[in-house]
Amino acid sequence: MENPRMVFLTPTVIKGDASGSEVVAHELAHSWTGNLITNKNNEHFWLNEVKEQNAEKHEGGSWPLLERRIVEAVQGKDIASLDIGIGWKWLVKDMERFKDNMEFTKLKTCQAGVDPDDVYSVVPYEKGFQFLLRIERQIGRPAFDDFLKKYIGTFKFQSIDTDVFLHFLKAYVPGIENEIDLKLWTEGTGIPPDAMEPVSNVYSKIVSLANEFKLGRIPREDEVADWKGQEWELYLENLPKSVEASQVTALDALYHLSESKNYVVKVAFLQLAISARCTDYYGVVEKILKEVGRILYLRPLYTALVQCAGEEEDKTFARRVFSKACDCYHPIAQAVIEATLAKNV
């Protein structure tokens, strides 16, 4: 969590492969957006978060754009593009999550009478990032960078809302509203048609390998030799929802994903194991649910357990573990998991 001049990081960021560096970049970016300039209220949350990006599925953020710029400078364009690709996948997931309440797929939302924790998602981060990327594509990176510097210089030490941002944008880039539908981007639902799904050689190769898994092919060791957390995360996120238990165990036997020090990778793999009813991994699942308190890891595992079609044993297991572990969770995490269990059990 970022604070002016002080950032607190969870031990789960230390992964042993430098893949947690994007979290550091994210929190550094908050020094400009989120701390130096902040959103007026939670209905304009995207102004805080869009310019930083990702940070482990957006557990507190700022402008993803700034974060990915740092990642690009330090780790290269391919890794930055990979990060954008992962963000795109999560954006699509949250669009599906809110399909019955599309209000919360907007950037500028109406949250009267709404608990912000109930509607927290990657939408402010990733749709907001796509909005800024659309502006950058329209005017070019050099001009966009000049705009960004002027924006920060103009509004430092202030809290602003979406209308203030748009007014400044239109004043700085005359006629931009004729090229980009600003109202659609900020007040419209869903993903605008001029958003751009990321394309990179690394991204395309990983998605292709994930598609081949459906045909029973596991990547060769030479194909994944350079993979770190982000690559494995994207691969696992693109695997089919329904796989055979034998495929899951074969994948783990080769690459030991259930033992990964990267919790994003480990949890993504365990979700796959739960969906395949690989009960041999439930001991690892229980250990994580009792030792790690981050909603980022708790919610997907509990959700996977209670959504197993017709598997009452998994639901009972989820309730039992929660009853033992809940006192160690933050009250917000407790409420989120209680709601997840109530909805599905």
TrEMBL record:
Q: How is the cofactor bound?
A: Binds 1 zinc ion per subunit.
Q: Which cofactor does it need?
A: Zn(2+)
The UniProt keywords, alphabetically, are: Hydrolase, Metal-binding, Metalloprotease, Protease, Zinc
Q: Which residues bind Zn(2+)?
A: H26, H30, E49
A Pfam family annotated for this chain is Peptidase_M1
- Record-annotated active site: E27, Y125
Q: Which domain of life is it from?
A: Eukaryota
InterPro entries reported in the protein's UniProt record? ARM-type_fold, M1_LTA-4_hydro/amino_C_sf, M1_LTA4H, Peptidase_M1_C, Peptidase_M1_dom, Peptidase_M4/M1_CTD_sf
Q: Which residues form the Peptidase M1 leukotriene A4 hydrolase/aminopeptidase C-terminal domain?
A: 201-341
Where is it found, in Gene Ontology cellular component terms?
cytosol
GO function terms (MF aspect): metallopeptidase activity; zinc ion binding
- Output one GO BP term: proteolysis
Which PANTHER family does this chain map to? LEUKOTRIENE A-4 HYDROLASE (PTHR45726)
Family designation? Belongs to the peptidase M1 family.
Name of the protein in its database record: Peptidase M1 leukotriene A4 hydrolase/aminopeptidase C-terminal domain-containing protein
- The species is Anisodus tanguticus
Q: What does the record give as the organism's lineage? A: Eukaryota, Viridiplantae, Streptophyta, Embryophyta, Tracheophyta
